[in-house]
Amino acid sequence: MPSQKRILLLADIGNTAIKFSLADTEKIFHSFSLPTRSQYSIDSLGIYLTQMLSIAQVTQIHHAALCSVVPELSSIFRDACFRYLKVKPAIFPTDFSISIHNAYKNPDEVGADRLMAAYAARMLYPDMASIIAVDYGTATTFDCIAHNDYLGGLICPGVLSSHNALAQGTAKLPHISLELEDDSPLIGQNTITSMSHGFIFGFVAMTEGLCERLKEQLPSPVCVIATGGFARDIARISTSIEHVHPDLILEGLRLASQPLITS
Q1: Which residues are catalytic, by number?
Q2: 86: Cβ–Cβ under 8 A, 6 or more apart, which residues?
Q3: Residue-wise pLDDT tens digits, 102-158
Q4: Is the separation of the CB atoms in 252 and 122 below 8 Å?
Q5: For helices 71-80 and 42-56, what crossing angle results, to 10°?
Q6: What is the value of pTM for the model shown?
Q7: Domain count, the chain
Q8: Cα Rg of the chain (Å, integer)
């Protein structure tokens, strides 16, 4: 990492995980994550951030930016940054805006994470008339962008939350790994194979079917990008996904924060 560059701390606080990244004007170069918990204090989060910087061999943060869907943790992160890193983070959408039009019927209903992901997708693929951004997070969301308009999308069950709900509700079904090496679904002859292939290929089929139907409503050409924890696993099998960006929201924060880094 070049020592002369100004460093930005990025944070994406979701319902399941808190993702942190360190970035400069060109790229994200370090990423860390924590489970989302309500028990974090200003000090516990601040100590984690200082340890993260030490591991990355970063001595100073020049700016910080946050996208969060957990309001109580937003204020804790803000105060931790101020107390331990001596920076005041810019929180989206309160402290800064992005150059994409929110065309949702009720704009205030759209989560900050979905808007930031849509912005990142548009910035990364400016030549595409339309983009479908699929986020495999706590929920699986399909967000549609046409030209510079965020149109809305679909909210479906998440891979991990669906698996946990099934495992908790059925005592005889085991917890399974959702990482597969197979390219086609097997006819399961044991419970683990039946569940793992059912989940992954079920979400692949959902992705391909919904993307095909959504493309019919969008200006061409349309590209499909995937983000979130299971993006690579789904994309390896799916014929619909063209690009994978595991940390699309953090990339959006980096791009939106360019004036902060260079000022």
Answers
A1: 113
A2: none
A3: 999 999 999 999 999 999 999 999 999 999 999 998 899 999 999 999 999 999 998
A4: no
A5: 60
A6: 0.89
A7: 2
A8: 19
With b meaning 16 or more CB within 10 Å and e meaning fewer, what string describes 20-30?
A: bbbbbeeebeb
Domain match, 129 and 72 both:
no
Q: How many Cβ atoms from other residues are within 10 Å of residue 220's Cβ?
A: 9
Contacts with 156 (C-beta within 8 Å, 6 or more apart), sequence order: 139, 140, 141, 142, 206, 210
Which H or E element spans position 248? helix 248-256
* pLDDT one-digit tens code per residue, 172-193: 666 666 667 777 888 888 887 8
Determine if residue 228 is left, alpha or beta; phi over 0 gives left, psi from -120 to 50 gives alpha, anything else beta. left
Query: Which residues lie across from 130 on neighbouring strands?
Result: 146, 222
What CATH number did the domain enclosing 163 receive? 3.30.420.40
Give pLDDT tens digits for 76-95.
999 999 999 999 999 999 99
- Bond before 259 cis per omega within 30 degrees: no
Q: Are residues 108 and 189 in the same domain?
A: yes
Say how far apart CA 249 and CA 113 lie, in whole Å. 7
Token pair 């548009």 is at which residue? Answer: 122
